[in-house]
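Journal club prep — side note

Before the paper discussion, L.F. wants everyone to see what a predicted structure for a comparable chain looks like in token form. Sequence:
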Amino acid sequence: MTTFGESPRILSTRQMRTTTRRRMASAWGVITAGLLCAAPTPTFAATTNHEAQVSGEKADTGAEFLAKYAAWAKGIEAEGQARGTPLTAEQTELARQVGIAHPEKVRLVHVEAVPFPTQDEAMRKMGESLGFIGPGITNNAQAFGYTIWVRDGFTLDRPSLAHELVHVAQIERSASFDAYVQRYMQELQTYGHARMPLEVEAYEANRTYR
């Protein structure tokens, strides 16, 4: 999630096989269903004790994932702020052009692998289901708040940087990182990755800033 994204997006430069994309969409559906179940619903939404129990379980799963991922991501942003490098003058101008209000806060962090909370077994399993991690999956870059984490060996050219900066701008104008993640999930479930508004905006930047 450019992210978490892009966030995710967190998925803009993630290379995934078709089967992985299908797994991700399915898992997002489970989580989003949990988020929807957590909201007030009409009395006819759950007509049996079993349906109510299932709805409650989905709500718990979605809410727990959101809370844990958001808390972890905030820690990653803090780490990135401490160890990352500021944007160059040219990159700062690009950040302004894509709509970031405070480009001076953005940091680029180059690492062997873009982080994910694999030390948490439940989060790791969810990450595998979502297609964030696992065999054949390479996450090249992802925005966490005002930090952009970039995999060593990946060329963060102008279009790719613009894409990630758009996700930073989206996070910046969101009420909170938690709110951004929830919106990303719901859009992904509703529209699919290629058509969801958050990614459409980011991919437009790929074409605009060449």
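L.F.'s comment for the group: The beta strands are 85-86, 107-111, 141-144, 147-151. Keep this in mind when we get to the figures.
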